[in-house]
Amino acid sequence: MVKIASPATTHYGPPIASHNGLKVQVCFQCGYKHLAPLPNPDTITRFYADPDGFYKDAEQMFRIDANHHHMGLWDPLYRWETTQLFTHLGPATRIIDLGAGTGWFVKWWADNIGRAVGVEPSPVARSNSPVPARLFPTLPESARKFAGGNPVYLRARLVLEHLVDPVGFLKEAVGIPQRVKGIIVTTPNEWNPLQDRIVKRDGVGNWFIDKTHINYFDKQGLGVVLREAGFEPLGWYATHPLELWQLAGFKYIGDDQKGQRVHLARLNLEKRLGRVAFGLYKILFDRLGWGREIICVAKLRDTI
Ligand SMILES: [Zn+2]
After folding, report:
1. Predicted local distance difference test score (pLDDT) of residue 55
2. What domains does the chain contain, in order, with CATH numbers?
3. 50-80 residues labelled b (16+ CB within 10 A) or e (exposed)
4. Distance 218 CA to ligand 1 centre (A)
5. Could you report the per-residue pLDDT of 286-300, keeping only the tens digit for each?
6. Per residue in 224-240, pLDDT tens?
7. Which of 34, 89, 146, 157 is the right S-S partner for 186, CB 3.0 to 4.6 Å?
8. What distance in Å separates the CA atoms of residue 97 and residue 263, rounded to the nearest whole number?
9. Ion ligand 1 residues within 5 Å by Cβ
């Protein structure tokens, strides 16, 4: 898809799918798929800062996640993400996690690599964090606390799909007073071949279309956002092809308990296989487009 104009003021393009009264369009103006119409940005900002918003009633989810972290089940992914940053962008010991949630990655980085802070608008997520003092509600506040002019990486995991203006968000992040080397971004990999097969054959419709899920990226659409924000993609990767479980008959879609078991199985697999798992995901993504999420490492142009 070719991006035609910026900033996007008029969104036009064919509708591609709908679910529960929500419609997704292929937007030629933005260069990626998103909800049509787009929600009001102020409504979205309030929703994420509201204790009754995105993380409402999430305490049980937080407890399960904390258990997984205490068991070291996320360490392989965090170690692998760090290796990709070092490999593509060279060494740096500081990182800002944009949309940090409860901040477990921030804690892991601070424990293992160097200095880390997170930006997280939700007071519920911040108050359930193992490192609440390292999380800040807004970007400027975290940048002031984190100043020093040292090289810094950015990380945005499962954030850009929730924003009305992902390009503007990234541009604000690179305007902080550090020397930004680059970013590692993770977003869902929408309408990948496995997901497409579930939509067409499993009777669950476009289950992933949701009012909090504004943008629907594939590799090309995410590349448009990153380039528009001033980044140059250097490496493309993917996470576990979760949809295989659904297609194999372990129907986790719409079943939270099964979903948790599938999630735990995936983490256990990565704990046992280590980097071999991520190498396998890379092959499946490159050859078949499989992978629940896309991961991209990108450098900020003209800075390194
Ligand atoms: Zn648009």
Report:
1. 87
2. 57-300 (3.40.50.150)
3. eeebbbeebeeebeebeebbeeebbbbbbeb
4. 15
5. 999 999 999 999 999
6. 999 999 999 999 999 99
7. 157
8. 22
9. 8, 11, 27, 29-30
